[in-house]
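Workshop exercise sheet. Pairs work together: one partner reads the sequence aloud, the other fills in the structure field after running the prediction. Swap roles for the next sheet.
Pair: D.N. / O.F.
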Amino acid sequence: MNSKLQTRFPGLAEDWKKVFVDEWSPYFGAVLLVLIILALMTTGQFWGIFGGVKYWGDRLNAAIGLAPLLGIAEAKDGFLTHRMSLMNILLVLGAFTAALLSGQFQPNRAPKLEYVWGALGGSAMGIGAALAGGCTAGGFFNPVVHSSPAGWAMWAGLLAGAWVGLKVLLWTLDHVEWGTAAPAPLPVSPGLRRLYPVLGLALVVAVVAWSATWWASPEKQTASRAITVAAGFALGFVIHRSRLCFARSIREPFMTAEGTMTKAVILALAVGMPLAALLFRAKVIDPYVAIPPTFWIGSLVGGVIFGFGMVFAGGCASGALWRMAEGHAKLWVAMVFFAWVGSIAAALFKKLGLTAIDETNVETWEVTGIGRQAFLPEMLGGWGAALAIGFGLLAFWYAVVRWNETTEKLTVL
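Structure field:
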């Protein structure tokens, strides 16, 4: 805030700092995240990232002439009408707004080698997400909340992939010297920095007006997209303010033994699973809409590849989006390759019959060459056993992370 305002209104300045500048607790952010997702579910929608990222890659492949060769259909929706694309764009915008209000937006160039790692990591993330039917949001978090073992299969793969990725990354630190010199930081004038809060507040007003305008539209699809605008913006804002990152929750116990982010994700899942179960039992939303047909092979193998990639990329899908919004150039490179290679991989896997839906299947769940949709309450005959397994796995994960915080037995450094 302006120094004169701080002097005249010290109480307001202190409140501003607590809300918009000081980092939020990841536990608070995790609960807000899951509440936004559950609110979205009450409207019949769900959170996802890779669908929108793949759409961006499809448009890129169409622009460079690869779409016909890959069998990618012509896009019917635009960047702001495709639901997942719109949600991703608003997530970036929400995070950008939070970065402005906190004064943390800073264009950040990385060493040359980091751009190579960003391209490599983003490509691996695209391949992994194409196999798993989603990224850490759509392939892991959502399925676990929806009581699908596909999410837990990807979780196991993410852990294995992150461990291998860290071992390889550590080897490169000892053996690769090219491109490690950090470039000079890009300067931002003090005058522009003073405008950050004003620009941030202007964006808040603009997004509220945007959502309200679409909500008032007589067209049903446009009105429903108003919810997507509000939810995507809120997700980006909350994730940035609390620095939530699924990649960090998987990676940090192996790097530093620090488990705060992991425990925050565990809390989000513990809150989300029973509340989502209530929505499913009330038939507010079909649980299968966010369960990929990839259990267990696609989820596990995709998780390994994605976990490896996110270590080199420096973030998962949601983490890459909010760090892009904060000004990190490496994450822009990672996201471009995530989208491009993800689109290519998804098209090729479909052509090979790995991820194509078996149209002859007459069951209520979908089947592919690498798995099927799996819903624990249906598999086990009720919610009791399904939730017991889910909470049992969360308790096991928490116990291992807590033990590792004091022993550092699992660190690879």
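Discussion prompt: The longest helix spans residues 149-175. What would you look at next?
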